[in-house]
């Protein structure tokens, strides 16, 4: 299982690097890693340390959660993961008919907001208003909160992606104060 996890992580890193039009050398330089280390991650020979994944995420301008592996490969695993999400976040099925869908009980305002934002972007993709790459890039960089500097109280850019919520995605967004450790990464 560990070999598969390393290969999947390597594939994620390689796919993101290629989507950004970067060579291994360029990504290594941007992330402050050696080219050989990055190559071994992409090949699945080694699993990157958390701090290296953090550097890679910043260099690729994506949220580090993009690299998380939930190891879900079957429908049985999907449904049980959804059952667990009901317990943790109030994610519930919405009816018996087709198409089946999910809603969020009001106890999880952040998740409800994130699902609305996701739905809006998916509609834009389906309507041809954004490309599949733009949609994938949006998902890779999405953070459903407005970030606030703990010292100044001012809104800040996401330190991974350099972005802020804009337009309709700012509606109902919670303001989240971040610690200096997180900001300095």
Short description:
With 185 residues, the protein is mainly alpha-helical.
Q: Assign an overall shape.
A: globular
Assembly form of the protein: single chain
- Strand fraction equals 5-15%
Structural class: mainly alpha
> What is the CA-CA span between the terminal residues?
30 Å
Number of strands: 5
Give an overview in words.
The chain has 185 residues and is mainly α. It folds into 3 domains: 2-67, 434 Repressor (Amino-terminal Domain) (Orthogonal Bundle); 72-107, no CATH class; 108-185, no CATH class. Helices cover 51% and strands 9% of the residues. It has helices at residues 2-19, 24-31, 35-43, 50-60, 75-89, 109-126, 132-141, 180-184, and strands at 91-93, 102-104, 145-148, 155-156, 174-177. The strands form 2 sheets. Strands 4-3-5 form a 3-stranded mixed β-sheet, with no helix packed on it. Strands 1-2 form a two-stranded antiparallel ribbon. β1 and β2 (102-104) form a beta hairpin. α2 crosses α3. The relative contact order is 0.10.
Defining traits:
3 domains, 185 residues, 434 Repressor (Amino-terminal Domain), two-stranded antiparallel sheet, three-stranded mixed sheet, mainly alpha, disordered C terminus
Map the helices and strands:
Layout: H1 2-19, H2 24-31, H3 35-43, H4 50-60, H5 75-89, E1 91-93, E2 102-104, H6 109-126, H7 132-141, E3 145-148, E4 155-156, E5 174-177, H8 180-184
Parallel strand pairs: 3-5
Antiparallel strand pairs: 1-2, 3-4
Helix pairs in contact: 1-3, 2-3, 2-4, 6-7
